[in-house]
């Protein structure tokens, strides 16, 4: 197939899933055209089946808000028509699904039919999409898609609960490249970070409020009171400065490091003993899946789709949102030397169920259905 993928090109989960999907599809012989405003961060290699088309928004003094959606629509029309795409797959409803709807109408007026598949990733539904500023457009553009997928059953449930959706939503979970995400030999790194054999806790996120990074620090404080431990925080975002200050106020700053945005996150995960995901909202939890693939068990909340990934008592432990005391107790249980090897092995085994090879055929099936539907 000749497939167009529209996504955010950033480190965020939806952009990572879209990029990894495009790479996997290209390896399976499809031609994949990425359409977005800059080179996706994980689109970092050459493949004869991969193409990248940049959306350029011309500046004009009248525009207080550059009309990205219009430039994106025009680019979609151009690429569908000239590259003869079979299907357009947009990741994250806002504004990609409505731009795709507009592109589809323009193409129809030119005698070209293009099926649109929309993948809902999370905050496009649970946070931003519900806002009255966007809800009518989100509802309409989902209903106008020829195929709709969500990354967890919980996100599908929430979409039906809050939006008047008439379409079937197919659940296609996040997936992982197990050749890239596996435990690597990084003992020199571990020795540098935890020279006294301390347990190593890891958190990666975009440091937004939904991630509750403050709870990460408070869990770490509780764990460190009982056992020697270090904490690595990967990523960056709005709450980072506040968290650096809080770490100093809590007097744990010497035992943790903020590593910023990292491309090779699997190298850091390879030295971890426990991954912390105390999110308030998480449609799937790709970051936890990446950790599990590197044999790192997860202490998480029960938010959104996390329980569809993290199996309580097997791959990690689950607590209510905000219950820091319970997460401290759970972390200590998982980190106990009697329990840790079992949790590590189970985390990897669970991650293997989400291997890219198992999940990508589901998207191919969805494309075929959408193409037949138009
Ligand atoms: O986690 C984020 O805030 C980024 C966000 C995104 O849209 O890029 O991630 C969402 O999509 C990921 C890929 O499907 C999911 O694994 C994340 O759980 C989801 N984040 C939230 O629901 C908060």
From TrEMBL:
Residues 189-342 form the Glycosyl transferase family domain. It holds the Pfam family Glycos_transf_1. Residues 11-180 form the Glycosyltransferase subfamily 4-like N-terminal domain. InterPro entries: Glyco_trans_1 (IPR001296), Glyco_trans_4-like_N (IPR028098), Glycosyltransferase_grp1 (IPR050194), Thiol_BshA (IPR023881). PANTHER family: SULFOQUINOVOSYL TRANSFERASE SQD2. This is N-acetyl-alpha-D-glucosaminyl L-malate synthase BshA. It comes from Hymenobacter segetis.
